[in-house]
Design goal:
The complex is a heterodimer of chains A (157) and B (424).
Chain A lengths: L3 H11 L11 H11 L6 H11 L3 H10 L11 E6 L2 H4 L3 H12 L12 E6 L11 E3 L2 E3 L4 H9 L3
Parallel strand pairs in A: 1-2
Antiparallel strand pairs in A: 1-3, 3-4
Helix pairs in contact in A: 1-2, 2-3, 3-4
Chain B lengths: L16 H6 L4 H7 L5 H11 L11 H6 L10 E6 L8 H8 L1 H15 L3 E6 L4 H16 L15 E6 L9 H8 L23 E5 H13 L1 H7 L7 E8 L5 E6 L2 E2 H7 L9 E5 L8 E2 H6 L1 E2 L1 H6 L8 E6 L4 H15 L5 H18 L7 H12 L7 H26 L9
Parallel strand pairs in B: 1-2, 1-4, 2-3, 5-11
Antiparallel strand pairs in B: 5-6, 7-10, 8-9, 8-11
The chains are: A alpha+beta (157), B alpha/beta (424).
Chain lengths: 157, 424
């Protein structure tokens, strides 16, 4: 179920677009609902969003499966999205991703045993001068080293 | 350095409205609201300035704006492309974070010139810090009475909104961006019709990149000729470059067009101790790779980089030193395009997969002697056969990496390992 609070947040986006163009808010609706549902989407939620925005379910499903940031399987409480593209790679992102996998005893794409963290390799996040870098929630973490990763992980509770 | 888009970088609270106004911000906009500047005057200044689209294509901004049917009745739109995602590029992020008002003023001016009363800034979904910064800036401008309907009692109206993406490189392509803004999959449209005639919601629309909009207020404030003179012939003004990869101090720099590549490299701290320059991608991962020798001779402007055999693109300079394995690096780029192909055109959808899988096979030590010819043949068949430029962008690195470093690829295929001892 989409909560009233989420509906209010969706309405904030709907208002930005002309009347009859509510579907422009679908990407944010999916983002908001996903956040409320602990980081992933379900078919039921997608149906509910379609109903709320007056869109065919298939249109919402298309958007939900096209864009990278929507998850269709449960994820950890925190998702570490680690860039492995060229500028980060040239500065050692691969070694840091391996370090993270060993330390958390997870492979990229998996959730840690305690459910706290999942790790995802992602393409360029547009912070190349700060590489190697990763994103957790709204926050970017740049110029990463093994020491910095230890600190970041220590703060995830 | 830092004369246009980054001019407030060294000030306290560079992103605030107060700082922006203190350094001449919204002066041009106020002149417009006072009826002291006509659309034709603005178009003339922009043409004089030589400003070309900073997103990668380099199309003259003034000319693009003049294509809009400004006297046609009905809604028209201005859209800013802040979907920055070309590997190696991150200067629009800094413009949004540290000079958001230049983008707002640039968009408002564009709206006035093209008779478009609504603007959207499409910011990539991961850029939450820039998004909050930009939203705050918009709110401050509304509070100051500089946006809205009949602004300050004038006949000028402009409303501005942000839209957030959700992770798709292809949405940086302008018609894919429009599809996405309409709440659909980001799949590029056939052109023509061009967005200036049929754009957002089917209405006339002009889309410019963040840096292009951010340059406009300063150009109009100090004059098109002033901006043109900062640069060189055919490449007016300054350009923001992201210098990344194997340099000591990767960073964004706004320097005059025509700055020697060697100077830019020095600004980024030069190479790490004991390392030699091996290759350079000058304009982002979609532009052809250049060897060190060629790169050291070029200057950072459209013509010089084109003569060197590549493109200025988005100004994303990726430096590779002699510890870089070209097979591994190319495979990583091939994976990117495979991952980001929207799937609409067969040559790109299937071709990017072929390229990636073959390169990964070589990297795994299972390459075959005719793989390089096959790779060249596959990339050739993608080029020019797709709706948008992503296909060409995927083929370009494959062609240029193999052309310049074929022996390195042959060695890898023959021995199942890299000829580069230290893998960057």
């Amino acid at each position: 179920m989409i909560s009233d609070q989420s509906k209010k947040e969706i309405d904030f986006w709907v208002k930005k677009y002309p009347e009859g163009r509510e579907s422009s808010a679908v990407m944010q609706a999916l983002t908001i609902v996903q956040k409320e549902n602990n980081g992933s989407l379900t078919n039921e939620l997608i149906k509910e969003i379609a109903g709320y925005l007056g869109m065919p379910v298939i249109s919402v499903q298309e958007v939900a499966t096209f864009y990278e940031n929507y998850n269709h399987k449960p994820v950890g409480k925190y998702v570490i999205r680690f860039c492995h593209n060229i500028s980060c790679m040239l500065n050692g992102s691969d070694d840091l991703i391996s370090y993270l996998e060993e330390k958390l005893e997870v492979k990229t794409g998996e959730i840690s045993k305690n459910g706290l963290v999942s790790v995802k390799k992602v393409e360029c996040l547009g912070a190349c001068v700060g590489g190697p870098m990763c994103q957790i929630g709204d926050q970017y973490y740049e110029h990463l080293t093994t020491k910095k990763i230890d600190e970041i992980l220590g703060n995830l509770k | 350095m830092n004369e246009v888009c980054f001019k407030n970088l060294d000030k306290e609270n560079p992103a605030s409205l107060a700082t922006y106004e203190l350094t001449g911000g919204y002066k041009v906009w106020r002149k417009i609201l006072n009826g002291e500047l006509s659309p034709d005057q603005i178009l003339a200044e922009l043409k004089t300035s030589g400003l070309r689209g900073r997103g990668g294509a380099g199309f003259p901004t003034g000319l693009k704006w003049s294509f809009m049917p400004r006297n046609q009745e009905g809604q028209k739109y201005v859209v800013c492309n802040s979907d920055e995602g070309e590997p190696g590029t991150c200067h629009d992020r800094d413009i949004l974070r540290y000079n958001p008002h230049s983008v707002i003023e640039g968009m408002a001016i564009a709206g006035y010139v093209m008779n478009a009363t609504v603007g959207y800034n499409y910011i990539r979904g991961e850029f939450m810090e820039p998004y909050y910064r930009f939203e705050e800036a918009i709110k401050d401008v509304y509070d100051a009475g500089l946006l809205g309907t009949n602004i300050m009692g004038s006949s000028v109206s402009f409303d501005l909104y942000t839209h957030l993406g959700a992770g798709a490189y292809i949405c940086g392509e302008e018609t894919a961006l429009l599809e996405s803004l309409e709440g659909k999959k980001g799949q590029p449209r056939f052109k023509p019709p061009f967005p200036a005639n049929v754009g957002l919601y089917g209405k006339p629309t002009t889309i410019n990149n963040t840096e292009s909009f951010a340059s406009v207020p300063e150009i109009l404030s100090r004059g098109g000729q002033w901006f043109a003179d900062l640069g060189v012939e055919n490449s007016g003004g300054t350009k923001c470059f992201s210098v990344t990869g194997n340099v000591r101090k990767p960073a964004n720099f706004e320097v005059p067009m025509g700055t020697p590549f060697s100077e830019l490299l020095e600004l980024a701290g030069g190479l790490k101790k004991g390392r030699k320059l091996k290759a350079v991608i000058p304009g982002g991962s979609s532009t052809p790779l250049l060897t060190a020798k060629t790169a050291m001779k070029m200057t950072m402007d459209y013509d010089s980089i084109e003569n060197a055999g590549s493109m200025l693109g988005a100004g994303s300079v990726i430096i590779m030193d002699d510890s870089t394995c070209m097979v591994k690096t190319l495979t990583r780029l091939a994976h990117f395009y495979y991952d980001e192909s929207c799937g609409q055109c067969t040559p790109c959808r299937e071709g990017t997969g072929w390229l990636y899988r073959m390169l990964q096979r070589i990297l795994d030590g299972n390459g075959k002697s005719d793989d390089l010819d096959l790779l060249m043949s596959v990339q050739e068949k993608i080029i020019g056969n797709t709706i948008c430029a992503l296909g060409d962008a995927a083929a370009t690195p494959v062609e240029s990496f193999i052309r310049h470093f074929r022996p390195e690829f042959e060695y890898y295929i023959k021995h199942g390992k890299s000829m580069v001892e230290i893998d960057g």
